[in-house]
Each structure stands twice: as structure tokens, then as C-alpha cells.
């Protein structure tokens, strides 16, 4: 592939308006202008569908990395021209084995911007608008203003996924308890890891959401501290010892936090880990393993991202055009041994903490300490909160029971953790509002005292 | 290596090196693939090979770029040889012998079969790819593909508790659970615990290990009784004993040579080693001889154990017992290899239980009336909406092309009238192969509707799938499919058939 973005093999063409040469959309038109036996019941062949895709349909792509680059290309070559892309990252050399919109000269630049530039130059008429942001930077006005028809995620973070999921649920409007379909923004979500991947279609408020199937994402395994501190067995234990215990103690680079992208930092962790391993006759500590553990690196290749992004883009096309019934609703892919796919319908959870609108049940005896409630919120596999902030209303006033993210409030509320629910003045049926990074809205819990 | 000197190549390929290692990467960088037809499907496949670092590629494509090609193809500025594959087959079929693998995209049946025959004789792996409407198709044609590193997802552990080797036995004997202090007792690896209680069980049950659910439950109970109790006779918190109980099933798995490996050992290639035999077969033969001598009926010990609750010393010591035995067995296998052949590269037999061979039938065999896999086709067609119907439709469409020099329904006005023509092709296909199956009219209509379109998202799906299969062939790691893959973008389902 050439280093520079080369001009198209077709002559001329303006960047906007009439830049569609003869035959450009032939492949796409066959699915929009012809009747067929397997089309969606609502489908009507017409020449207007293509115009809708080209001129009106607005797509938000979240992530401009392994999946994002593929998604942008796929959407652009399927007729979508109004695309926004959000990504908070800058380009790293290790991205270049799969994120094909980037070149070595782009390292350090924002992914969203470079990706948008490339697509806009390569696909005449396509207008990708980049946002060098975290998705959490945008509140509901971003969505109301832009009126996205479909949102497609290519994220590498479960927290961000859940946040996006929560945002779309918060945009739903109900009239007399009935969901207004025009407030639903379909969410297509893709994920990959090595040779495995999945793609799912979510209709917020109607089908299973991310949190309905939280158990499909098993919590990240952290090694027990006692193993790391006194009983290491694996090279990983030695690396974590170096990272979690030695670094804060020895502060090798002053007050600087450990930066996984800094080769000097990794080298330091690596050497200390080797020493630790030698003490215990453990083999296997390498620089590559050290970096992998510190940065929690997930292996990645171009092919898996290509497959999953393709499946996601096919679903975007189906939903935007009503050409076919969309995936209902979860596809799993694995090509370690041959090629394996499995398609199933993930079910909604009646009491889902994100989409069920019913207050979550919290069952504890009044003698339970607040600490136990906090642990439940973080450890329960259906909740998996990261750093929940718990507030409630007592005697008509809003009271923060515990909050971690602001140092002064954390210090002030920390003593509450050792107090019992009764001591804190909470009663049976009390509502607790819990905020967390995994959701843009607070989650309501109802205390149910047990004996 | 020092951080500063980590090459930019290592950094660039870091995420994939963690999957196939430096040796896999080397194989990729030494490969030269040939792509026939730079359509969307072709260029997507190529992109997914260039990104991970394929050594070289050659494109053979006699077509000129049309407006619709630019509409679905991200890469139309790469140069192509501009020759026509049919002309090459006419004038210089040996052109294709130089490649590690050939990828044939959107090929008409006649070109495909001709190419298949040339590549089969030259033992060059051939991957056929086709995007047709919302259907993706791949066919792998490789005579004999050996896989030493299959990297199975869920491999059983190789613990040998049913037939502990001498060193393991004496290591187990060095433990006396009854006399241990609590700290040591609670940090003894579960493998030792299970081994000890298994000894007890065997002595009480006429040397018969627990076999059914009832006996295994009783065995678990036996282990539980070994948990230390405090002064009030309440069981202590001994996580290692919990692990032992949880792992009883794993531990009691009989040591066995996997059927796939048994078949390989009993194969003709293994019995008849010549100077032409690939090193894969030499190693397999050496393993066979090991099994018959030092191995006492078993494969070389793998040498790895899972992580488990234990103090460092106990764990490392136990791990080393397995590791050293594995090294011993590997050395014995190497001696056999040396005897079989004068010089062979370094061989690791820790993958012995995961060796695989993939043999795909030739296209000639698939297409011949005498050897068509009727059973596979008819049994899948018991479900009339199985992906098998899509395979048959692709064959019918090829037939249409042969007869009419075009695909059905390319232009709007053709869609309706081509349905009956395509149906004739379907019927003649089924008749020729004596396939007593029924193909719903809906599929015939749908394939006319497709008009041989190559929508980008389907091409991209296939491009990702195909590229990874090519990488598997080149690297001899992970297991390729055998031999026909169908993807249905309408239902987001897929299937693999052996045709």
C-alpha cells in the first residue's frame, strides 16, 4: 500500500454534491431497488432509499481503532456519508498492524482526526466529522442536536460500553408508560480479542441491553494481594509485585505515575520483576510479558477486526434501509480452529440495573455495614460497578453516604463504611441513589431489610 | 533486549506476536502469495495480509476498472500485473508454482477448476473466495497441511495422576499431610492433595480409581475430611483443599493419547518415513517410537501445570518435577529423531497431544460425478434452509455463467426472466449429481436478485476470514477449516462443510 493517500483511479469528481460517477452504487442498489423473498416485511424497493443513505442518514461511530477504522471504511463504501467518529486516543506504533487508516508519520496524532481525514480524501462525498473526545464528554444535548439514526461502537472498554448503553436508555421517552419508538436509537456493538469477536444489535428499551448480559463479560482477574506480596508462583505475580508494591515504595522516577507507554518505566518494572523471580526460582519473566501485564494488553490482529466490523456494518445497512430483518441479536465468532460462528437471542433481564426502570433490590440486615453494600455493588456479577457513590435522602435532605472520586469527600465519608445501615439512619424500603462510571444516570436501589 | 533498542517492527507487530510468536511472524514475512482478481473481496483479503506483514504479493487481474468497482473497493491504486489468469494457464501454468499460496477471487468455474488442477499437482495451497450478494464462500484446497501448534482453546491438563511417573511418585511421597503444620497444610498444591487421597482410595478399593458420579462424590468427601479442624472441631478455611475437591474430575481424567494423534500415528505417512518426509512426520514417528519404549504407552509429558494455591516453594518444586520429566521425554524423542534422520531442526514435543493434519479433497474430486460427497449434501439439505442450499445455488449460478456467459439478474430487466433460466440450471445440477434434494424457489429468486453484486461489507467479512486462513497455512499454527465455508450475511450465520 502506498504511504500517501493516492487519488482515486476514477477521473474527476467533486468532493461534495454531484460526485457520484456512473455505476458507483450498483452493488448497493441491488438491495435497495429490487424486491426479494427474504426482505424485511416493511421493505419497499425504491430509488429513494439510496438518497436517504447518501444525504440524510446520520451514523455515530464510537472508536477509531481496530474496529473503528474498518467501520468507517465499510460504512463509507455502503453509501453512508454523514458520519461522526469519537475517539479519545492518539495513534501508537502498535496500532499499525491493524488500524489501516494510520501511517507511521501519524503516530501521536488523534485517531479520530486522522481517520476522518483519510476517509474523506479517499471516498469522495463522504463527510466524516471527528471528535477527539471520550464518549463521556458528551451529554444528551450532543445526541439530541445531531439526531443520529444509528450508533455503532467499536470500543475496547466495557465501562465505556455500559456508559453509552446507559446514555441511550436515558434518551428514551415514555408516554403513559408506553415507549415512544422514535426515541429509540439502535446500538450496534462490536468487540474483539485475539481470534474471538462478537457483534450485537441493541434496541434500547426493547431488546437486551449491555447490562442485561453483563455476565457475558467476566470481571477482570486480579491476582490476590497475598499471592503477590508473599507467595508468588507465576512470572505475572513477580511483575505485579514490581508494579503495585515496589514502584510506589521506591518511586524510581519521582512522583511520576507508572506509564505503560514509557519504555523506561517498563524496563524498570521488568528488571525488578526479574530479581523477584530469581528469588523464588520462577522462570518466564520477559520484557514482552511485563508490558503485557502492566498495560493489560489484549492481543489483536487485522482479520478479526475486519470480520466483526463487517458484520456490524451489515447490520447498520439493514437497519438504515429496512432491507432485511436485523440480527436478533448476538453473534459470536472464533477462528482459532476452522471458523466458528454462533448466533442467538440474548434475553432482556426483568430487573436489569440499566434498562428495567425498576429500583434494584438490596437485601441486607440492618446490622450490615455500609462496606458490605459497597462490596456487593462492585463484586456482584450483574452490577460490576467500579467506584460507586452512594447517596440517599434523610429527613428531607440529600446525604452522601460514601463517595470515592473526590478526595475530600472520600475522607469525610470514609467512617460511614464501618457504620451499620441502622446506625446511618437508613430504614426498610429506603431508596439509595448510586452513581458510577459505568452509567450516565444514577441507579436506584431499594433497601430490603432481612433478619 | 533493552527497551530502547526494541525494534519498531517488534513494536508495530507486538499485538500479533503475542498470538503467533516470532517464528510465526518469520514464516509470514518469508511468504509470497498470489491474488487473482483485485475485486473488493480480493483487496480486502490482501489488506489483511499486508497489515500483519506478508513478505510479498502478486496480483493477477485482467479486468479494467469500472465505475462500480471503485464504488465497493478501497484500494484501486495498487499496480497489478494486468495479465489474465486464463492466459497464464494456457501459456505458463508454472507461473503459479513460485507462490506459497494462491488466492482465487470471483473466479468462474472453468478457470477455478483449471487452476485447482495445476496447483494440486504442484502442491501449492489454493484458497477460493467468492462474495455473491449477501453470501460469502471459501474453499480451501490443500493436500496435506500439518499443524504442530494448534493452540487449542480448552486443552485438558496432562497431570498423570492415574499413572504417576517415578519422579512424581517420589515427590508425592515426600509429603506427609498428617504431620504438617497448618501453614504448610493450607499451602500444599491440590495436585499433591488429590494424589495422596487417591493413594488412600486405591488401597481401600482394590486399586480401582473412582469411576462413576457416586464414587467421585465419595472421593471428594474423603478429601474434604482431610481439611484441618480447629479446637472447636470446625473446619479451617483451606482454599487449597477446596481447589482439590473442585478439580477431582480433571485430576481423574485418564492419561490417554487423543484419537486425532492416534490416527496420525497409525497413518501411512508415519509408517513410511523417507528422506522426503516432512519434519512433522519424522517427529510423529519419533513420538510413536517413544510411546512404544520409554513412554510405556503414553505421550511425552507436556510439562505444564495450571496455577494453584500454594506457597512459592511447593508450587515451583512441583512444577519443576513436571518440567524436568518433560525435558527428559523430549530428549528421548530427539534421540529417536536422530536415529530416524541424520539432521533435523530443533523440535519441541510439548505440543504432542495437539498435533493436527488437515487434508482437503481436490476440486476435481468435489466436482466429479463419481466422487461428489452426496451424503454430506443430502443430509444437510434435510433442513431446506441450511447453508448447504447456498452452496448449491453458487454451483447453479456458476452453471448459468457457463451457459450464458453472464451471471443472472445483473441488470434490472433480467431479474424476472432469469429466474426460470436459473431454475433450469439448478435442476440440471441436481440431476447431474443425482441429488435428491429440494431447493425452494425463494432461493432461486434471491440469487437472481443478487445480480452477482459484491457488497463491500460481505467482501470485508470474507476478506478477514480468508486472510486468517492464509496466515494459518503459512505459519502452520492454528487449524485451518476443512474445506468449504459459507457465510450468510442475511442471517449472520455460517457453516463449514467437507465436500
TrEMBL record, chain A:
GO terms for biological process: protein neddylation. The active site is at residue 226. It comes from the Eukaryota. CDD domains: Uba3_RUB (cd01488). PANTHER family: NEDD8-ACTIVATING ENZYME E1 CATALYTIC SUBUNIT, UBIQUITIN-ACTIVATING ENZYME E1. Belongs to the ubiquitin-activating E1 family. UBA3 subfamily. This is NEDD8-activating enzyme E1 catalytic subunit. It comes from Myripristis murdjan. The gene is UBA3.
Automatic annotation (TrEMBL), chain B:
One of its GO terms (biological process) is protein neddylation. GO terms for cellular component: cytoplasm. Pfam families: ThiF. GO terms for molecular function: NEDD8 activating enzyme activity. Keywords: Ubl conjugation pathway. The keyword Manganese does not apply. Residues 13-84 form the THIF-type NAD/FAD binding fold domain. Signal peptide: none annotated. Pathway: Protein modification; protein neddylation. Regulatory subunit of the dimeric UBA3-NAE1 E1 enzyme. E1 activates NEDD8 by first adenylating its C-terminal glycine residue with ATP, thereafter linking this residue to the side chain of the catalytic cysteine, yielding a NEDD8-UBA3 thioester and free AMP. E1 finally transfers NEDD8 to the catalytic cysteine of UBE2M. Belongs to the ubiquitin-activating E1 family. ULA1 subfamily. This is NEDD8-activating enzyme E1 regulatory subunit. The lineage of its organism: Eukaryota, Metazoa, Chordata, Craniata, Vertebrata.
Amino acid at each position: 500500500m502506498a504511504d500517501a493517500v493516492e487519488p482515486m483511479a476514477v477521473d474527476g469528481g467533486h468532493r461534495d454534491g454531484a460526485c457520484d460517477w456512473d455505476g458507483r452504487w450498483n452493488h448497493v442498489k441491488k438491495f435497495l431497488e429490487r424486491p426479494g423473498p427474504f426482505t424485511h416485511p416493511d421493505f419497499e424497493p425504491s430509488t429513494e432509499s439510496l438518497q436517504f443513505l447518501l444525504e440524510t442518514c446520520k451514523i455515530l461511530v464510537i472508536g477509531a481503532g481496530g474496529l473503528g477504522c474498518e467501520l468507517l471504511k465499510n460504512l463509507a463504501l455502503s453509501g453512508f456519508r454523514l458520519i461522526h467518529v469519537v475517539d479519545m486516543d492518539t495513534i501508537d506504533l502498535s496500532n499499525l498492524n491493524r488500524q489501516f487508516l494510520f501511517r507511521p508519520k501519524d503516530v501521536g496524532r488523534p485517531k479520530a482526526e486522522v481517520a476522518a481525514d483519510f476517509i474523506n480524501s479517499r471516498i469522495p462525498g463522504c463527510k466524516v466529522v471527528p471528535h477527539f473526545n471520550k464518549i463521556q464528554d458528551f451529554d444528551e444535548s450532543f445526541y439530541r442536536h445531531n439526531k443520529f439514526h444509528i450508533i455503532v461502537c467499536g470500543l475496547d472498554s466495557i465501562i465505556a460500553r455500559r456508559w453509552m448503553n446507559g446514555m441511550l436508555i436515558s434518551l428514551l421517552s415514555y408516554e403513559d408508560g408506553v415507549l415512544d419508538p422514535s426515541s429509540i436509537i439502535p446500538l450496534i456493538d462490536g468487540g474483539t480479542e485475539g481470534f474471538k469477536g462478537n457483534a450485537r444489535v441493541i434496541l434500547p428499551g426493547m431488546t437486551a441491553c449491555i447490562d442485561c448480559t453483563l455476565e457475558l463479560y467476566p470481571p477482570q482477574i486480579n491476582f490476590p494481594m497475598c499471592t503477590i506480596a508473599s507467595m508468588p508462583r507465576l512470572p505475572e505475580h513477580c511483575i505485579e509485585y514490581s508494579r503495585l508494591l515496589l514502584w510506589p515504595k521506591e518511586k524510581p522516577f519521582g512522583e511520576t505515575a507508572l506509564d505503560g507507554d514509557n519504555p523506561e518505566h517498563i524496563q524498570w518494572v521488568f528488571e525488578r520483576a526479574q530479581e523477584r523471580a530469581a528469588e523464588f526460582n520462577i522462570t518466564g519473566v520477559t520484557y514482552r510479558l511485563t508490558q503485557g501485564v502492566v498495560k493489560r494488553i489484549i492481543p489483536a490482529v487485522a482479520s478479526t477486526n475486519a470480520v466483526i466490523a463487517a458484520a456490524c456494518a451489515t447490520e447498520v445497512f439493514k437497519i438504515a434501509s429496512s432491507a432485511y430483518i436485523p440480527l436478533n441479536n448476538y453473534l459470536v465468532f472464533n477462528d482459532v480452529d476452522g471458523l466458528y460462528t454462533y448466533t442467538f437471542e440474548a434475553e432482556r433481564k426483568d430487573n436489569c440495573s440499566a434498562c428495567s426502570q425498576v429500583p434494584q433490590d438490596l437485601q441486607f440486615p440492618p446490622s450490615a455495614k455500609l462496606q458490605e453494600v459497597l462490596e456487593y455493588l462492585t463484586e456482584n456479577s450483574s452490577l460490576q460497578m467500579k467506584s460507586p457513590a452512594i447517596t440517599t435522602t434523610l429527613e428531607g435532605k440529600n446525604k452522601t453516604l460514601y463517595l470515592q472520586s473526590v478526595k475530600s469527600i472520600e475522607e469525610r465519608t470514609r467512617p460511614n463504611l464501618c457504620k451499620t445501615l441502622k446506625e446511618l439512619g437508613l430504614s426498610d424500603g429506603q431508596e439509595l441513589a448510586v452513581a458510577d462510571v459505568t452509567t450516565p444516570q444514577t441507579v436506584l436501589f431499594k433497601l430490603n431489610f432481612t433478619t | 533486549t533493552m527497551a530502547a533498542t526494541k525494534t519498531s517492527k517488534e513494536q508495530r507487530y507486538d499485538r500479533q506476536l503475542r498470538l503467533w510468536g516470532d517464528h510465526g511472524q518469520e514464516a509470514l514475512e518469508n511468504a509470497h502469495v498470489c491474488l487473482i482478481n483485485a475485486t473488493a473481496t480480493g483487496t480486502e483479503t490482501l489488506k489483511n495480509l499486508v497489515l500483519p506483514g506478508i513478505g510479498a504479493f502478486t496480483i493477477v487481474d485482467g479486468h479494467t476498472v469500472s465505475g462500480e468497482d471503485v464504488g465497493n473497493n478501497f484500494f484501486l491504486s495498487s499496480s497489478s500485473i494486468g495479465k489474465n489468469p486464463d492466459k497464464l494457464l494456457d501459456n505458463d501454468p508454472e507461473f503459479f508454482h513460485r507462490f506459497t499460496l494462491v488466492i482465487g477471487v470471483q473466479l468462474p468455474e472453468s478457470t477455478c477448476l483449471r487452476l485447482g488442477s495445476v496447483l494440486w499437482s504442484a502442491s501449492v495451497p489454493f484458497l477460493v473466495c467468492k462474495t455473491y450478494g449477501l453470501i460469502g464462500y471459501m474453499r480451501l484446497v490443500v493436500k496435506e497441511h500439518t499443524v504442530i501448534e494448534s493452540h487449542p482453546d480448552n486443552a485438558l491438563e496432562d497431570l498423570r495422576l492415574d499413572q504417576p511417573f517415578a519422579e512424581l511418585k517420589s515427590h508425592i511421597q515426600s509429603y506427609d499431610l498428617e504431620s504438617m503444620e497448618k501453614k504448610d497444610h493450607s499451602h500444599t498444591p491440590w495436585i499433591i492433595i488429590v494424589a495422596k487421597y487417591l493413594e488412600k482410595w486405591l488401597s481401600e478399593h482394590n486399586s480401582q480409581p473412582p469411576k462413576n458420579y457416586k464414587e467421585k462424590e465419595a472421593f471428594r468427601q474423603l478429601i474434604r475430611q482431610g481439611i484441618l479442624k480447629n479446637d472447636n472441631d470446625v473446619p479451617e478455611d483451606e482454599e487449597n483443599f477446596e481447589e482439590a475437591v473442585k478439580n477431582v474430575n480433571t485430576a481423574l481424567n485418564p492419561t490417554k493419547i487423543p484419537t486425532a494423534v492416534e490416527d496420525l500415528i497409525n497413518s501411512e505417512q508415519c509408517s513410511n518415513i523417507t528422506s522426503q518426509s516432512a519434519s512433522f512426520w519424522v517427529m510423529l514417528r519419533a513420538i510413536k517410537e517413544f510411546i512404544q519404549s520409554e513412554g510405556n504407552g503414553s505421550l511425552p509429558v507436556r510439562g505444564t501445570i495450571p496455577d494453584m494455591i500454594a506457597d512459592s516453594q511447593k508450587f515451583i518444586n512441583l512444577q519443576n518435577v513436571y518440567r524436568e520429566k518433560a525435558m527428559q521425554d523430549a530428549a528421548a524423542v530427539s534421540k529417536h529423531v536422530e536415529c530416524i534422520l541424520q539432521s533435523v531442526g530443533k523440535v519441541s514435543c510439548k505440543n504432542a497431544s495437539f498435533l493436527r493434519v488437515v487434508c482437503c479433497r481436490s476440486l476435481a474430486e468435489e466436482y466429479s460425478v463419481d466422487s461428489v460427497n452426496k451424503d454430506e449434501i443430502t443430509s444437510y439439505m434435510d433442513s431446506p434452509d441450511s447453508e448447504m442450499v447456498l452452496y448449491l445455488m453458487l454451483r447453479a449460478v456458476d452453471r448459468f455463467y457457463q451457459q450464458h456467459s453472464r451471471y443472472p439478474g445483473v441488470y434490472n430487466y433480467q431479474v424476472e426472466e432469469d429466474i426460470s433460466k436459473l431454475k433450469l440450471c439448478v435442476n440440471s445440477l441436481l440431476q447431474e449429481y443425482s441429488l435428491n434434494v429440494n431447493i425452494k424457489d425463494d432461493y432461486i429468486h434471491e440469487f437472481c436478485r443478487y445480480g452477482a453484486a459484491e457488497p463491500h461489507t460481505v467482501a470485508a467479512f470474507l476478506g478477514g476470514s480468508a486472510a486468517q486462513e492464509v496466515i494459518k497455512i503459512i505459519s502452520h499454527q492454528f487449524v485451518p477449516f476443512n474445506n468449504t465455508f459459507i457465510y450468510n450475511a442475511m442471517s449472520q450465520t455460517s457453516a463449514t462443510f467437507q465436500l
